[in-house]
Model the fold of this input.
Amino acid sequence: MKANLGIDIFDSPNSRKGSNGVTHREQQFWTLVAFNLTVAARETYEPQTDSLSQPAKLRAYLEMLHRICSHMATEANASDSWLFSYLRDESERSGISRSVEWAIDDAKKNLGAS
Done:
């Protein structure tokens, strides 16, 4: 994965933190990443069935989604650098690095960041 996963997109003079310590822009970013991960996780399904073709990868996606949602819901004034590191490490371990890179890059693009 790329070294800079987008931390700099949160720097804005108009960024106000909510009660959980997360700015609106951070919330938008993580919501888009989470949504993109749900799209990417569909690759683990057996087409046109209720079965899974890659349950271990689906579990990795779900763990990532859990960490993102937990960060958004509870991390008062906490840095999210640990979350970027976690996503990088977990995606490499589970073989879904490209999908996670896409999820992050697409979220950055949709927020107008490069």
